Amino acid sequence: xxxxxxxxxxxxxxxxxxxxxxxxxxxxxxxxxxxxxxxxxxxxxxxxxxxxxxxxxxxxxxxxxxxxxxxxxxxxxxxxxxxxxxxxxxxxxxxxxxxxxxxxxxxxxxxxxxxxxxxxxxxxxxxxxxxxxxxxxxxxxxxxxxxxxxxxxxxxxxxxxxxxxxxxxxxxxxxxxxxxxxxxxxxxxxxxxxxxxxxxxxxxxxxxxxxxxxxxxxxxxxxxxxxxxxxxxxxxxxxxxxxxxxxxxxxxxxxxxxxxxxxxxxxxxxxxxxxxxxxxxxxxxxxxxxxxxxxxxxxxxxxxxxxxxxxxxxxxxxxxxxxxxxxxxxxxxxxxxxx
Length: 339
Hints:
Elements (H helix, E strand, L loop, with lengths): L1 E8 H7 L12 H6 L1 H9 L2 E5 L2 E2 L1 E2 L3 E7 L2 E11 L7 E5 L11 E7 L2 E7 L5 E3 L7 H18 L1 H11 L4 E4 L2 E4 L3 H27 L7 H20 L7 H23 L6 H30 L3 H28 L6
Antiparallel strand pairs: 1-6, 2-3, 2-7, 4-6, 5-6, 7-10, 8-9, 11-12
Helix pairs in contact: 4-9, 5-7, 6-8, 6-9, 7-8, 7-10
């Protein structure tokens, strides 16, 4: 028998099932209780646990509610009864994959005092639950991959980094942006900014993941949105022209707490804590360097054109300010203006 506790965000269930009966934007306990049957049917149809290829039968589901750092979650508790003497247990997960290809299912498996973390994705929807099916190397690669994936899909982190790097191929002279004379100067400016950002977010990522420092998620996410606005506004109304590394470092400390919230949700394995932490951080850095490697040569090649200095830097930065402003409003007041 496998005991299962499954936490599912109410905001995602509302989108998939529709449990806000009066459409007032607030899900009450009565509405949630009325939707228990629909929630169970929808969720259990997308989670299959099998033993030696034979399906395990789920018992009655207990419904609870829990509050996580990023919102309220419905909690489903049940037991999967499997054939006796089964050796190979497997879980296959498909929740929300048809609605959101970026969704990830995160599982923490406890077996004989050992804790392991599993990550379900559209590309890897099934995992073996038996400990012999999950090696240290595979777990490390999983956290490495998720680190890369998070920076690539974390659009607020990407826009912050891009806002800082767009002026790297330019320099302010007589109140206007002019191209840097050579690639080496642009490369050095980029290196200093990226290094400052990396050192800062690595520090707070480690402190927060190890639960040495903790900040409310609402504050962190709002501050990240504000950091994007400030970095983009500085491109249009430059106040810090030659010390962007200071902006990168200061706000990198905030972004590290954002990375840590993802890592906590993934579930750090107790026995491989250091390996998981380091591999996730390396994944973030690898994804970040890939973005820089794609941006810098293109920006340097276009730096002398009107298209880059006026349209990309100025107008593009104003668009980023508008997007970040929406994020800041949503996060500060816990609203959702757009789906």
